[in-house]
Amino acid sequence: MGTFRDSLDLRALRFAVGFPLLLALGFVVSALLIRRDLPEPVAIMWNADGGSSFAPFGAYVAGAASLIALVGWLVFVQAVPIARPVAMRRIMMGLGLMMSLFVTSVAAAGLVGQSRLPDARLSHVDPIVLALGSGAAVSLGVVMAFAFKPDERWTPEDDLALEAERILREDPALARDSLRMWVHARSSVFVMIVVAGLFPAVLIAVAVPWLGGLLALAALLGAGFLFARVRADRGGLEVFAGGVLKVLKVPAVDIAGAAAADVKAADFGGWGWRHHDDATAMLVSSGPAVVVRKLNGRRVALSAGDAATADELAGILNRAAARAHGPGQA
């Protein structure tokens, strides 16, 4: 029993059970408040030809309240198991709130549309109540999905983080072996892209908008590949073109050595992300760079901004490789 309880987010479970019940109760109370203004029996379904299906007031309210609770429970309960991904649990919690509020809005719109009418055959679903309720359901569901904080659970990622923390305590120097930086081409290169790409795109867009937009998009993508985000630590090297697209990943165990160098982009196929002969490169310009030799004989080259940064980055990668290949493989 204890294991089963540990597998559930109890706070989410209490909300999943309690909220639909309270919402259904609120609907029943509200329906009773306008009971005197409703015909008997009330309409429960409106057909395209103007006909209606009818049911006693009590059956309408009981059925609607049961549906509100049932729909809420069916969706909310998907967010309760801790083993499910956090993103899924957030989405299901927001969707549960949205669906239960939407069903309540539909049921309430059906009653309000019959208010103060002598015969339910003259009624219709109130569009204002339905629109306001549906809008509130969507917006509150989105807010819930972002605001809901699932119970934390221990994951394999936590094991890795704990192990990394243990290693840092044993070897404080590892904390300094981490580098995060951005590199980019010279400003003159971006001016050239604007003049040669974006400016003609604006002129072409006057006559052929889609072609001008396509040219502008190509220029922006080209400029994006002249930015790179570099991350180096004890795990190895990662490079992201434009800051988001991972184009290079070299684990520390695959590194034979790294050295700072002054390179020419043409030797590696040009600017940007390139595969050239035995090398893969992410160069935003010619100049200071780091060339990494892999155990399989291939090379990786990336821009480093300036000579001092290139030396620092090469040192971090060499130390990471030495630890990865050492006896303890820290």
Report on the architecture of this protein.
The chain is an alpha+beta fold. Helix content is 51%, strand content 20%. Helix 4 (86-112) packs antiparallel against helix 5. The longest helix has 27 residues, at 86-112. The radius of gyration is 32 Å and the shape is elongated.
Describe the structure concisely.
The chain is α+β, with helices and mostly antiparallel strands and 330 residues long.
Q: Ranges with pLDDT <50 over ≥5 residues?
A: none
**Oligomeric state of the chains present here:** single chain
Q: Note the run of SSEs as H and E.
A: HHEEHHHHEHHEEEEEEEEH
Strand order of the largest sheet: 7-10-11-9-8
**CA-to-CA gap between the ends?**
40 Å
What's the shape?
A: elongated
> Overall pLDDT, averaged?
80
Note the total helix count. Answer: 9
| Portion of residues within helices | 40-55%
